[in-house]
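Supplementary Note 3. Input sequence used for the single-chain structure prediction.
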Amino acid sequence: MDVHDQELLLAVLPIIVFEFLWDDDDEAEEDILVPLLLAILGLREKRDSVPRIANYTELTVTLFNDMDFHEHFRMRRGPFELLLTEICANSNGVLPLTHIAGGRVPTTPTKHLLITLWILGNQCCIRDVADRFGVSKWTVWTVIRRVCTILVNYLAPKFIKWPTGARVKTVSESFEAIAKLPGVIGSIDGSHIEVKPPSDDMDSYRNRLSYYSMVLQAVCDSEMVFTNCFAGYPGSVHDARVLRNSELGLEAGAHQALLFASETYIIGDSAYPLETWLMVPFKQQGGHAFTWQQGVYNHAHADTRKVIERAFRLLKCRWRKLQMIDLDCTEYYPQIIVAACVLHNFRRLHDIDDVAFLQAPCENAGAANNPAPLDAPVFAAEQASQQRRQQLVTYLSS
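The predicted structure, written as discrete structure tokens, is reproduced below.
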């Protein structure tokens, strides 16, 4: 109650008291007059802050052993400290990690990262996280945006890298060891991340499986490490169109030699167009069966391409927020998705322990890829692309 309200009540108080003095109803006097007097005197209970769990980071988390820490935050303490060092070193002063505007207690870099890992690693609401870490809901949301911005803008170029130099040969040989398909340096696919759609554009986010999603396009190597990630298109957009408008599609079309060394390429499913740098399986046309040579190629292609499906499964099973992003911030969905991909790569490089996640049941783990419809926006399959694929067929058949 501010000063103006108190002055107003003081002005009308004599009138109210006079009315009650002539009223014999003692119950009415107790129910109305007494609370009014208490309000004027400032004795009514006032809550200064919302009660929350205190010192969860400072007391409880410090008591976790390495296994407990891993289960809660999806990585062990050693890699966590490395990641924290990377984030602090790459904040560049643009995102001060020790201050939240309007907050009463500074939020430390450690708490920033713990909150972000908890959000991305669990299906929980902002309110639950705020209560657990003893901060406001606004602080939680601010922390997520800060840390994800650092992960995407500063750490993604370091941990999501296209193979170059000697790495090209290493990746190619690893892929060839799977099914003897030579020259492969990446497997590409699209995965649908279920999201809460914007109320003014819900239909654009409805995919062919009738749920709302955003497309994550990614390329990975044989070790399930992402080498290229692109997110942002709503679920109704076909995979071929996403590729055509992504940085990878634009660069490969304009400067193929910069991305693909001689005789190297990536592989994708039948939703993608056939290009000299992108090999896809043969499709049955007119009801005609495959030749046995084409069947051998398709089998080797499918076995080699499966690595991207396993990578998506691992990504969603570890960073469970990607099973359903229900935050009211559609414009930040791509940043959250790519930030999870950065954390995925960091874990693959520094803390590999994926058996349990790959074996555990995982909702919406696979990609909801659209088979290429007749009117799908696809690239023209040039003669050079056909010749490249036929050379692979001949190689495998021999």
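Residues 372-381 have pLDDT under 50 and may be disordered. Strands lie at 184-194, 213-220, 226-234, 265-267, 278-279.
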